[in-house]
Amino acid sequence: xxxDNNTEITFHHEYDREASRKEVIKITVILSVITLIELALGFxxxxxxxxxxxxxxxxxxxxxxxxxxxxxxxxxAYFMHLxxxxxxxxxxxxxxxxxxxxxxxxxxxDGNSYRNLKNxxxxxxxxxxxxxxxxxxxxxxxxxxxVGH
Amino acid sequence: xxxxxxxxxxxxxxGKSPFNVEYGELMMWYFLMSDAxxxxxxxxxxxxxxxxxxxxxxxxxxxxxxxxFGSGLPLMFVSLMTFILIISSVTMVLAVLGGHAMDNxxxxxxxxxxxxxxxxxxxxxxxxxAHLHHEGAWWGSNPFLNMDGTKASTNFSNFFxxxxxFHGFHVFSGVVINxxxxxxxxxxxxxxxxxxxxxEKAGLYWHFVDLVWVFVFTVFYLV
Lengths: 149, 223
Prior knowledge:
The complex is a heterodimer of chains A (149) and B (223). Chain A is mainly α. Chain A has 5 helices and no strands. In chain A, helix 1 (17-47) runs antiparallel to helix 2 (54-79). The termini of chain A are far apart. The relative contact order of chain A is 0.05. With 223 residues, chain B is mainly α. In chain B, 68% of the residues lie in helices and 0% in strands. Chain B has 7 helices and no strands. Chain B has helices at 23-51, 59-62, 76-100, 104-134, 155-186, 189-193, 197-222. The longest helix of chain B is centred in the last third of the chain and has 32 residues, at 155-186. Chain B starts with 22 loop residues before the first helix and ends with a helix. The relative contact order of chain B is 0.15. Chains A and B meet through helix 1, helix 2, helix 3 and helix 4 of A and helix 1, helix 3 and helix 7 of B.
């Protein structure tokens, strides 16, 4: 108990330094592996974007998003140590974050609906957004944007 | 690894922290929660606009350059940035663990490494911004075409610079906080205080910065 001169009484969180160190190494490996898988999927999308159907593209992107959430979980639970706090304290953080479920679904659906409505009722907008144009007219000073794609 | 708490502990009978967390640390959590909503609002507005657009620039075309090695290397530079931030998060955890063990030297060593990681990340970001600016991208200007070869609006670059800029500002603040922590550790402030809880709070902030990057990295560079 080295927190004695703190006016608030808190019980010492138990730390076995060696065990903690092992846990850190484990989580580091997990995060690195997930990142590598994400990058592999990203390269797959990049290399065969044309050949993959829209379903496969969405599937791969969905997997990447799930892996992103897994990474977020490991960082919050282990690096930020939230998993080892008291359940009541965890709930005061996690429950308000549930608002994101509504937040994401509502706004993305709204954006999608806006696009559909605009394409339906504003044919000029749709026509304009389908016009192909030539590359690099904005005074690009480097030519390397054209290379390699 | 549960907490060392006596059985049948009454948390709400007064005289103690019912969450068994120091006040400042709890408030850091609540601050980070509010910050998560700020970033969430940014990223969701980005998603909304992207869903409302008929096409969008291809990140693999926009972010394909690497210093010295030139272009045609999509995802490489951002992978480097991502790993720098993950590793700096790891050294921050080690600094916090050193603090628990009252090991001043370990705290100093790992804080220095974390600060170096943060500065390296900021340097990478500065290079990327400078490079994109050189190519003609900035707030209100977007030289890149959409994936399907149509003309893109400036939404892409506006969101990119705003969100990565806001994140970069957080990284910068984190580096400053870590430098302050380093100076305090070197002056034995925490040694005299008897605990290293401040390192833990700075650590929470730093991990949050890493956490936000996980989301920014995914939605801007990967999908």
